[in-house]
Specification:
By secondary structure, this protein is mainly beta. It is 14% helix and 37% strand.
Length: 215
């Protein structure tokens, strides 16, 4: 079982054996939740992500994975897919940027990949640890795809980004990007997007941001 990354985004075409359908950008939509995890000494240990993929993509990537034929997709049946998708995210920086004092913090290898299928949607979760715990009191979290192949949106509400075991008095401020207008999307050609790489800054205008400030 192998994972193919197509068009600069994780797509499991080789896993299912079907060709990737062609649509205008973005191709995949994700509703994201994030939990900043702190250690007992107040340092930031990492981020626990939970990403809900759109129904079309969810149906596409789970074809043929109902191994026991019971008409349901269990976490066990999806575990290999969860592991491969999570590991492959390293090529894209996990679509995650965490800054302290304007400097990017480095991530270690992701842990605890898990995938569930509910209400016709795949939810991928994993823990993304920092290479070294950070003692920074103010951090900025950004979630986005630089190539805009994947459209990330934070879940509604102020609990889209939460804090686990954070020092008392920490506060979170969330900023969501403006939605892409239909006229804007119509003017975006595939030829333009084919020139973009993970190092491009095009997708930053669609970044979801959260500032976490602790006393």
């Amino acid at each position: 079982m192998t994972l193919r990354l197509g068009l600069r985004c994780l797509l499991v075409g080789s896993l299912t054996g079907f060709a990737v359908p062609a649509f205008a950008h973005p191709h995949v939509w994700v509703i994201a939740r994030a939990e900043m995890v702190y250690e007992t000494d107040g340092k930031i240990a990492g981020i626990r992500h939970a990403w809900t993929f759109d129904k079309s993509y969810s149906a596409y990537v789970t074809q043929g994975l109902d191994k026991n034929g019971d008409g349901k997709l269990s976490p066990e049946e999806l575990q290999d897919l969860a592991k491969e998708n999570t590991e492959s995210l390293a090529e894209f920086g996990y679509f995650t940027v965490l800054k302290a004092n304007g400097k990017k913090l480095e991530f270690g290898s992701p842990r605890d990949p898990r995938m569930i299928y509910e209400t016709d949607e795949v939810v991928l979760s994993f823990f993304l640890p920092l290479s070294a715990p950070s003692a920074a009191r103010t951090t900025a979290l950004e979630i986005y795809d630089p190539t805009f192949f994947v459209s990330f949106s934070l879940a509604d509400g102020e609990d889209a980004v939460t804090l686990a075991s954070a020092p008392k008095g920490c506060a979170t401020s969330i900023a969501r990007p403006k939605p892409l207008e239909a006229t804007q999307q119509k003017n975006m050609s595939e030829a333009f997007f084919e020139t973009l790489t993970a190092a491009s800054n095009f997708g930053t205008q669609f970044a979801n941001k959260a500032i976490i400030a602790c006393p």
